[in-house]
Amino acid sequence: MTGLLLRYNKVHNDALQKLEPNLRKKFEFIWGDLEDLEGLADLQSASSLSNYLDSLPQFDFVVIGDVFWPTGQNICKICKEKNIPTFFLQHGQWVYTKNKISLIHYPTCTFLFGDFINDVCTSWIYSKFSKCSVTGSPRYDDAKSNGGNVYLYFAPPVLEEIVHKKPSGIIRKQAVQALSTLKGIDKELSVIIQPHYREARVDWLHDMFPAAQFADPNLDPFKLVRGASKVIASRDSTSVLDAIAHRKIVALTDIRDTKSFFSKGHFGEFALESKNKQEFIRHANSDYKLKGNNYVQRAKKHVYLGDASTRIVELIYQEMYNVS
Prior knowledge:
The chain is of the alpha/beta class. It has helices at residues 10-23, 46-55, 70-81, 115-122, 126-129, 173-181, 202-208, 221-227, 239-245, 277-285, 295-299, 308-320; strands at 2-7, 28-33, 61-64, 86-89, 109-112, 131-134, 152-154, 162-163, 166-167, 191-193, 213-214, 230-233, 250-252, 271-272.
């Protein structure tokens, strides 16, 4: 049998690259890329996608990175009509869920990061139509800590997102306020800032934190996370999971009473909550480290670590060959 690995965005594409070696042990596969299509990748019509999929060599299943935007919905619809299973990899924290609870077209299977999001998903109509499994993410298959004590890795929230290759025009005021509260930390802490790869206002970050070092948004963040003493991020950021996967403490930027999908204290031992900038700086400078045994089990609420690729390939194999 042959699978189609369909590239979608940077994070999903990284997961596919990690999944590929294990997938090739049991399946043939081909690659596709939504960026090859004319127009906006998330908003492809059913006819455009049908023509594109028909242009590819024959395949028996698809691994996709989104099912919520029109493109993802149309892929699920087309594949269901052709009796082709679709396997959906969660690729980021689901901090916006209104468009996820109930769909018109569902993937055959959904592979989730951890127990918490699985419990949330199980409470939705979604889980009645897509088989949901906690697998973790292939991105974290090789995650490990190499110590690190020289700098703090800072992944700031997006101020204005680049959507379909141009600034959205929508400034996220809450993110601006959160970062404004932290102005000056770069003068007291050794910080490397890596803007989100869809950040349109990198210049604003330079203005806010002029003493910080900046990393290319397109670089592999894991190299920077591994070498950091701690990670700085907001509760809603996937960088929190990056930190947990690499056994790094997170100093959370959610100092104000900001809206978040996750409640205060949600990340427990893995994150430090601060009441003000002074406490944040103390936390960032502290030598607090994660201790104790059974780290994988403790982290599984948020992200299931270990060999996610093998888990995913085994579930795909079971689905394709009706193996229980």
